[in-house]
Amino acid sequence: MTSRLKTELCDILGIEYPIILAGMGGAAGPALAAAVSAAGGLGVVGATGYTPEELHGMIAKVRSLTDKPFGVDLLLPSSIVDTGNREDLEVEISDDHRRYVDQLKEEFGIPDPKKRRDRPPLTKDYFQQQVQVVLDEKVPVFASGLGNPGWMVDDAHAQGMKVLGLVGNVKNAKRVAAANVDAVVAQGTEAGGHTGRIGTLALVPQVVDAVSPTKVVAAGGIGDGRGLLAALALGAQAVWCGTAFLATPEAYQDSEERGEVDRWTRDVQHKKLVAAVDEDTRIGRMYSGKTMRHVYNAWSEAWERPEAPPTLPMPLQGLLVSEALQGAREAHIEELVGGPAGNVAGLIDAIRPAKTVVESMVQQAEELLDRIASPARA
Ligand SMILES: Cc1cc2nc3c(=O)[nH]c(=O)nc-3n(C[C@H](O)[C@H](O)[C@H](O)COP(=O)(O)O)c2cc1C
Fold this sequence. Notes:
Radius of gyration: 20 Å
CATH topology of the domain at 8-80 and 122-248 and 356-370: TIM Barrel
Distance between the termini: 24 Å
Helix content: 40-55%
Number of helices: 16
Strand order of the largest sheet: 1-9-8-6-5-4-3-2
Mean pLDDT: 94
Structural class: alpha/beta
Order of helices and strands: HEHEHEHHHEHEHEEHEHEHHHEEHHH
Bound molecules: flavin mononucleotide
Shape: globular
């Protein structure tokens, strides 16, 4: 039986339920994306950290796990350097910044990392190469998590693909809708990861009105069936959920298999997510240089001290801090474990399989629909 929650966008994307796994670098790999797609939602791989070669492999892996539609998410920031390798860019990092990171390494006892990640930094050249892979692979859905995907929409449509563009305000929503995307993802400040200033409840209907007839997906702070139904009531055609799917055994699974995080780190991340209450995530630029909501911890606090230097723009802040954070993970320094997560972390009280997260969201929303239709039975 077709779900009553099914929307026109579900038909366009070829999915059963209006639930989309948000692209989450490191956390949403092929295992999680395939599990969400197999459960009737749309799984989206957070692919920003993959080189073009790795991206081919990740796409093949999703295809080996499910024959359902899936997506790939990349960051296409508009304010970023055109080109440059790690060494070229690192010369722009001041001695003050390096000294401050050294000071923090000493304070927290962070060793140099054993494994160095020699990935190229995010530049315009680099993300254009990543997008080319997505086009060559004819991935069913492409999502841009930052910036305007307008420059690749025609090519994507020519490949039979659909394109989603994520925004945090009405101005950018209009810009991205004008670029002919298939849906605009309107993300409120509650969201985990890079995020804006406007709350989801206020943003989504304003974006719906501003970009109609372009379809809208709601994001930020949606973690159960109540949030799903509320988003549909606001005029959204689906929800884009990140934090809710972090609390699953499939999250970070591929990163663990690739040796990028170990089981201890995954377990501590899960433990902190389950323990988190509504105020435990905050916004700061100390990870990537852009405003990012994350689990507030000793690292966040260290960058808010009066003596801390101002954070650097993307991608320099990431280059500045990534090795120290890698060293902290390898040395199992629990107070420094954190990472991106949204306000909805306070709603999470258990680690459940991704399939269960999808099914329980659908079931709760369906039950609510019944209750609203027949209040006397509630
Ligand atoms: C752990 C984590 C990693 C994320 N990484 C990315 C990323 O690499 N690219 C991106 O576009 N968005 C990223 N995001 C943002 C999500 O795609 C999504 O917009 C957000 O999680 C939605 O809000 P919610 O967390 O309240 O569900 C990340 C979010 C989290 C929680």
